[in-house]
Amino acid sequence: MDKITEEFNSVAIDTSTCANCGKEGNGAVMNTCNKCKVAKYCNAACKKKHRSKHKKACERRVAELHDIELFKQPPPAEDCPICFLQMPTIGAGRYMTCCGKKICGGCWYSYAVKKIMKKKGDPLCPFCRTPEYTSHEDKIQREKKRAEMNDPKAIYYQGLSYITGFWGVTIDYTKALELWHRAAELGCKDAYYTIAYCYQGGMGVKVDKKRATYYYEQAAMMGDAKARYNLGNGEMHEGNIDRALKHYMIGVRSGEPDSLETIKGLYSDGHVTKDDYTDALRSYQAYVSEVKSAQRDEAAAADDKYRYY
């Protein structure tokens, strides 16, 4: 057992004892290290005096706690409100500006697209039956209304309009990032991913790999499988195959196909074991069984944009 582990074990056994002077105190009111949340001190003076001795152990502990959260399998994606099947990772569906629901590609195709093909009128929202927007202005106004209700998805899509110039909106990277940060704070994983992508490629901001990694991590911990794949690629670039494999495996369990292909390549090159690759295949097959449906198959067969695995 190394000295750092011994230090934390000793602190964890009795958190009512000052890590600096050893005096006993009331654990409920003692001064706690702001970073590791473990080491206790009888006062601020002891905390300051012990800082240099505690620094390495604290940094190690903070990194360990971070990895525990980072490598947790995130919760599965939300269910489609129509068919109640888990939303797929790719071809995830269509956001409805009328009610704020996201509909899977299978339900959208079966209800709205087939209706148009059969010339049975304009498409309606499969969930609330509101007619589809009829103009750019109508779409923008609907998104604005949803954004005023603090709908994170609507705010996110507003940001996309500012960075792509779609729907007649003037391109404004600063405004787009402002909206994405707001959406991210409201819990939109897509916003975290897109902010990371901007920092990685220098879109509207200076290239900043550390910030890109931070935002990819936030997205990945919320269940964004593509962000997880990018984190795995980053670890591979640094030569950290074990950490990369952890990311790829989490991605595979969430249905990220590129993660599976990368693990296959790593197995072919002898970097991971046959058991690792077998586990990845089985995990991906389990994901497919969760998201597969006849409607989604029909939509994917009719148009590749509805492909979902």
Write the SSE topology.
Blueprint: H1 3-13, E1 31-32, E2 40-41, H2 44-49, H3 51-70, E3 94-95, E4 102-103, H4 105-117, H5 136-148, H6 152-164, H7 173-185, H8 189-201, H9 209-221, H10 225-237, H11 241-253, H12 257-268, H13 274-291, H14 294-302
Helix pairs in contact: 1-3, 4-14, 5-6, 6-7, 7-8, 8-9, 9-10, 10-11, 11-12, 12-13
Which descriptors apply to this entry?
single chain; two-stranded antiparallel sheet; 2 domains; 4 strands; 309 residues; Serine Threonine Protein Phosphatase 5, Tetratricopeptide repeat; mainly alpha
Structural domain count = 2
Q: What can be said about the biggest beta sheet?
A: 2 strands, antiparallel
The stretches of 5 or more residues where confidence is low (pLDDT under 50) are none
Percentage of residues in helical conformation: 55-70%
**The CATH topology of the largest domain:** Serine Threonine Protein Phosphatase 5, Tetratricopeptide repeat
Topology as a string of helices (H) and strands (E)? HEEHHEEHHHHHHHHHHH
Instruction: Characterize the overall form.
Output: globular
Count of individual beta strands = 4
